[in-house]
Design brief:
The protein has 308 residues and is α+β, with helices and mostly antiparallel strands. The protein is built from 4 helices and 14 strands. 31% of the residues are buried.
Length: 308
């Protein structure tokens, strides 16, 4: 199965990007390769199952069906009904992730499909660069200078992704950033307030189920690795022992490649149960003094390399 992927950080808030990208019939307004578009059968563009019919610059007719649309998580998916290329089983996804370090948004456009053996790699490159990357560049240009006046407290419809959602650009390629954070026993190297971190029972740091012991300031914590993926460049963990007034603390870090400039978007989330009055302190502390401070420390380290 072939894969096509492109991503770009757009200098506009997620609400503005979603308002434009969400319109399944609106690509002629921002994508340079799309000449026209109509939704068949008179349906609205946000009806799941609707089909958009459009022409490319060379006159090729393409028809695509909307398979998913999620206003609460800024995501939609679609497939080919009449393909633009000789591929099969084409499914594409478009998703947005707001950064928490400013009014910027990571846009990810990706697809999977089957190519004929003699075409191996041909259409993956055409889709990733000729369709997705060029489209995201045009979308970014279209949205330059856009603002959104709504409070970020209402940014997520329904529940937030987690009590703490911290998304920040890392000034290094994905492989470099992942190498820096993957070591579950290595966080003392990229957080100034973490000390004496070791794996209990001499366990390997990439052993799922293993526990790391460390000092955060004057407090001792035990955190257990519950998930590690070199495919998704992500890990999750839970706290087994902590001086903080919370229960059932689970957190996870995932890295996303930004293909437009060969950097990385890091997204760190955490959930737990605590008294409301304690959360008033816990939530900003974890966001600013744990997650964001770690990202800032990593970026300071990356600044001394040729990757930035």
């Amino acid at each position: 199965m072939a894969k096509a992927y492109a991503s770009r950080i757009i200098a506009a808030p997620v609400e503005a990007v979603w308002a434009l990208a969400r319109d399944f019939n609106g690509m002629p307004g921002w994508h340079p390769a799309i000449m026209d578009s109509v939704i068949e059968d008179g349906r609205d563009a946000d009806v799941v199952g609707c089909i958009r019919s459009f022409h490319l610059g060379d006159g090729t007719l393409v028809r695509e069906r909307l398979l998913e649309l999620d206003d609460s998580r800024y995501f939609f998916a679609y497939n080919f009904e009449t393909p633009a290329f000789p591929v099969e089983n084409y499914e594409a996804r478009f998703s947005l992730l707001p950064l928490t370090t400013g009014e910027e948004t990571l846009a990810i456009w990706e697809a999977t499909f089957d190519e004929a053996p003699e075409d191996a790699g041909k259409y993956a490159d055409i889709v990733a660069n000729g369709v997705f990357a060029s489209g995201l560049a045009a979308l970014a240009a279209k949205l330059e200078g856009e603002t959104h006046l709504a409070s970020t407290e209402a940014r997520w419809q329904g529940l937030h992704p987690a009590k703490v959602y911290c998304a920040s650009r890392l000034g290094a390629p994905l492989a470099t950033a992942w190498a820096a954070v993957r070591d579950f026993a290595g966080m003392a190297d990229w957080h100034p307030d973490i000390h004496a971190m070791t794996m209990l029972d001499d366990a390997r740091a990439d052993k799922v189920g293993a526990v790391r012991d460390f000092l955060f300031g004057e407090g001792r914590l035990h955190e257990q690795l519950t998930y590690l993926s070199d495919i998704d460049t992500a890990f999750r963990y839970k706290i087994n022992m902590s001086p903080m007034p919370w229960l059932n603390y689970h957190a996870g870090l995932r890295l996303h490649p930004v293909t437009a400039d060969d950097t990385t978007l890091a997204v760190w989330t955490a959930d737990w149960v605590a008294a409301p009055q304690d959360d008033l302190t816990l939530i900003p502390t974890v966001h600013e003094l744990v997650f964001q401070l770690a990202f800032d420390t990593l970026n300071a380290q990356f600044a001394g390399t040729r990757h930035v």
